[in-house]
């Protein structure tokens, strides 16, 4: 098996899932992707769409997604300042890759309810 160096760490990724989990790992990242799937959103909108997330955690996870090239941050020169977050091309591709997992999750929950 080919291993690829993990950015910032001496160990390596062992498979594609390992690399993907490095990008989307965290309680809120997949939900942030879900919230940005339809359109760009401002920070306050994201916070309202994700009840329970703190400002600090949302900020941290948005920065991590931005670092990985999944989310872009656009600052508009307005008063008051406006910042919007949107999915990049890689973010849209990641969302498409997560669709089968979403379908599996819905089916799994429905089976457990029956």
Structural class call reads alpha+beta
| Estimated helix fraction | 40-55%
Characterize the biggest β-sheet: 3 strands, antiparallel
Order of helices and strands: EEHHEHHEEH
Share of β-strand residues: 15-25%
Question: Which labels suit this protein?
Answer:
single chain; 114 residues; alpha+beta; 3-stranded antiparallel beta sheet; two-stranded antiparallel ribbon; 5 helices; 5 strands; globular
Account of the 3D structure:
By secondary structure, the chain is α+β, with helices and mostly antiparallel strands. It is built from five helices and five strands, in the order E-E-H-H-E-H-H-E-E-H.
Briefly characterize the structure.
The protein is of the alpha+beta class and about 110 residues long. About 55% of the residues lie in helices and about 15% in strands. It is built from 5 helices and 5 strands.
Write the layout of secondary structure elements.
Blueprint: E1 4-5, E2 12-13, H1 16-24, H2 29-36, E3 41-42, H3 43-49, H4 55-67, E4 71-76, E5 82-87, H5 89-113
Antiparallel strand pairs: 1-2, 3-5, 4-5
């Amino acid at each position: 098996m080919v291993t690829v160096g993990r950015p910032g760490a001496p160990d390596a990724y062992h498979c594609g899932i390992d690399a993907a989990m490095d990008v989307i790992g965290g309680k809120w990242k997949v939900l942030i992707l879900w919230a940005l799937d339809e359109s760009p959103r401002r920070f306050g909108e994201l916070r309202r769409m994700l009840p329970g997330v703190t400002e600090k955690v949302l900020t941290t996870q948005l920065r991590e997604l931005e670092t990985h090239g999944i989310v872009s941050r656009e600052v508009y020169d307005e008063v008051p300042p406006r910042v919007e977050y949107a999915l990049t091309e890689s973010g849209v591709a990641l969302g498409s890759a997560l669709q089968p997992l979403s379908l599996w999750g819905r089916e799994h929950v429905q089976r457990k309810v029956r």
